Amino acid sequence: MIAPTVTGALRWMEVLASLAVVQGTLELLAARASLDDDGTWRWSTLSRELPWLGIVLRYRPFLGVLGVRLLAALLLLTGVRGGTAAALWVTSLLVNARFRGTTNGGSDMMLLVVLTALVVAHAAPDAETVQRAAVLYVAAQSFLSYFIAGVAKLASPAWRNGRAMRSFLSTPHFAVPPTLARVLGASGPLRVSSWGVMAFECAVPLAMTRPLACAAYVTVALGFHLGNAWAFGLNRFVLAWAATWPALLYASSLAP
Question: Which of 152, 155, 153 is nearest to 193 (CA)?
């Protein structure tokens, strides 16, 4: 059976969200020098806005926060609940506070959406209605993330004629692979790729018609996010959005 049960969807969400947290936490630990008192993200600069959080957001305490976050993710990955999702939610919120917002944009926001649903579901393990609502909340957020992005692009002349895609490819900090830049250097391929992205995102309502259609959509979505990770370095988006796909698959099974 393609579509998971509520329990199955929650378990897959736990696994994929935990992997996303592990990935993001290891990246922050690898770049911890930038968080030191001499680093770019030193607390002395950031403390002006939230001085009362210094007890947990200074350099050494913050490394402890990351350690707790990593441990909680590994425990949840192995199936240990008992507050692990809540620990991930709190520590993820502290990470975002440390950087005055989501450190990696939409992926961190979507991860918080999934963690919020898991906290609610874990708080009522015997209430199927609550667990179903938590899963459908994530499904709705995932659905809207694709659909609204697609409609917004479709309404933009820059996306329809390929200029928006060209601007992404030419942005220095994305470090687009030279091969891709050459392939999409002409206006024709740019328009085809732009319309391909818009068609994919706007087609998400079709995924909700039946589980098989949703499975096909999720497969394309995996390729889409892996492509973005390769082309633009958006590696955290893969697991963050993958953690929402079990919810989408479950929601698709409710279609008449």
Answer: 153
